[in-house]
Amino acid sequence: MTAPYRVEILGKHSRDGFDCGNEALNEYLCRRANQDQRKRFAVCYLLIEATTDQIVGYYTLSSGGVSLADLPPQRQKGLPRYPSVPIARIGRLAIAKSEQERGLGGVLLFDAIKRASASSMGVYAVLVDAIDEQAVRFYQHHSFEVLESNPRILFLPIADGLKRITKS
């Protein structure tokens, strides 16, 4: 990540003025992220511009599982035959309109992959819920694969994500 940014967990940050161009994502950060965090449904990580302390992006991370049968057949090979595969879920990811097209979405993805891999829990993959077709293309650009059961849910095995990070 470039020096003028830092990632930290949502706390008593001012969220006024954050606008990613998607009202649902704006509203989540301003009105629901704290509640989800308090109830331990998700942790919200903020991308902060260091000189202004402005929030320029965020993502949420939570644990979950995905059916082994939903993974592409080539990804099922070699995995234990449990009914569910452990995942870290990125439920939301947004970058402020003023900061889009600067590669910061990829920065947040890689931050999520690093956090998931450093977890003291078993996590096979990072899974995302793409909000629209543009988001699907974004995640596919970062090597995420579509689940068999839903074209808007994509995943990236942690091992593959870590390889991408070390190549960057």
UniProtKB/TrEMBL annotation:
Give any GO molecular function from the UniProt entry: acyltransferase activity, transferring groups other than amino-acyl groups
Has keyword DNA damage? Answer: no
Keyword Acyltransferase attributed: yes
Q: Where is the N-acetyltransferase domain?
A: 84-149
**Keywords tagged on the record:** Acyltransferase, Repressor, Toxin-antitoxin system, Transferase
Cross-referenced InterPro entries: Acyl_CoA_acyltransferase (IPR016181), GNAT_dom (IPR000182)
- What sections of the protein cross the membrane? none
Q: Reaction catalysed? A: glycyl-tRNA(Gly) + acetyl-CoA = N-acetylglycyl-tRNA(Gly) + CoA + H(+)
What protein name is recorded for this chain?
N-acetyltransferase domain-containing protein
Q: Which organism is it from?
A: Roseimaritima ulvae
